[in-house]
Write a structure and sequence with these properties.
By secondary structure, this protein is α/β, with parallel strands linked by helices. It has eight helices and nine strands.
Length: 272
Amino acid sequence: MTNPYELADVAAQQLRERSGVDHYDVAVVLGSGWKEGAAALGAPSSEVATSTLSGFAAPSVAGHLGQILSLEVAGRHVALLAGRVHLYEGHSASEVVHPVRTLIKAGAKTVVLTNACGGLLLSIPPGNVVVIRDQINLTATSPLEGPPPPEGVSARFVDLSDLYSARLRHVVHETVPGLNEAVYVGVRGPHYETPAEIEMVRTMGATVVGMSTVLESIAARHLGAEVLGLGLVSNFAAGVATGALSHAEVLEAGQSAATSLGDLLATLLAVL
């Protein structure tokens, strides 16, 4: 088996060569619906197809393109990953987090994980952005499973007490007052949850639910990056309100909120 950390080193060097950016400061993973908003950040200086980088799996979900966009925001080099992959596509936990590991190996010390999520609270309706305060990982896996990390990489028994950086969350609230905080529960999918499952995770303390993010946050924290999580509530979860759930609804919510999401990203990337 290829060492995933060495594979990330190789991919990071390839990214530098193809993008012309020697060192990134911030990495942003664009979840469903966030790609349209990212257009507000301006034209990228380069677009690198992830298919040209070692170890990257091709995304198969609508709205995930498979690109790394490079641009400069407030004098900082930012990498936007448009092409997240998920466990439910048949990928391993290591494959899911490979893009985040690559961007950290390319220099990023701050990782912003965005997603579309289902809301569990009527008080936070669709269209709202939440700041992720903590998470519950119900995927039954971890990116740190398997052989121990090689010499020079932190031990896999990483402390997740400050998984979503309190410092970064404070910066967000100071910059954009009024955003709610949430506890994100990550599930495998691809099916949506049953009303009984939603009631279970609400009892556990979750306030939003989704099928991504939890593994990437663990991998990023393990490599020493500060993590910020932002979720666009795209729909109410099963049993919270009436109506059927669909991925089209998720994408539509992102398109409707594109302008506000872009403004939010531009504001935050200037201060993180």
